[in-house]
Amino acid sequence: MSQTYPLVVSREGAVGIIELARPEKFNCLSMSVHAGIEAAIDGFEKPDSGVRAILIRAQGRHFCTGADLDEVKSLRADPARLKHFISYGHSVLKRLERSDLPVVGACQGLTLAGGSELMLACDIIFAAKDARFGDQHAQFGLIPGWGGSQRIPRVAGLRRGLDLFFSARWIDADTALQWGLVNYVVEPETLGEAALAYCTKVATRSRIGISNMKRLARQGMEGSSEVGLKLEEDLVSAALLDDDISEGLAAFEARRTPAFKS
């Protein structure tokens, strides 16, 4: 990965890892961070990459506390560049959300504002027990700019979402779990191990099968149940002819672990 990206990109078996690497700035998000995430996704999604799951984690005490406000301030004098900054962040998080690969996030310390927007673009979230989550835009006269205004209410519910926006308060990991913002809460010292173990297990599944299920769930949430059900009907009819299905059925009959090709 180019040194111009403040990320560490690596692999652990079939798991591609994107590690935010700006601990001195609480891993705040900039154009170069988003460019690094996009480049990493491009590489991981290549059919010959060997990557079957993505893990996003961060160095230091905090996962991510939001956008790089120094960069925001520098762009306010140029509305066109400022708009591009927002639009590009949107496109990268949409790309992450719609990736064919399952994406798992591991959050420690603070996950705030733009950090929560990055988190919500992931499919599965592990949180350290001492982690805190929130949206502080209102405290400074700002509004969410990278999808938070839509994703938080959809996941946590309208009233909870508005409460987070209006109050700008932080919630703890157990509350985030109760609200559906995270999937698992673990001890801080086991966060990295637990998230990687989950990714490693998911990476043993059929890549095309996981991709289809993610597509069904994500697109189904965006439209009516009728549209989602029709998509399921069409996808499963095609999927049942796939080689991975043949392998899965053969493995079931032989009581062995499948060796998927996709």
UniProtKB/TrEMBL annotation:
Cross-referenced InterPro entries: ClpP/crotonase-like_dom_sf, Enoyl-CoA_hydra/iso
Lineage: superkingdom: Bacteria
Xref: Gene3D superfamilies: 2-enoyl-CoA Hydratase, Chain A, domain 1
Name assigned to this protein: Short chain enoyl-CoA hydratase
Species of provenance: Noviherbaspirillum suwonense
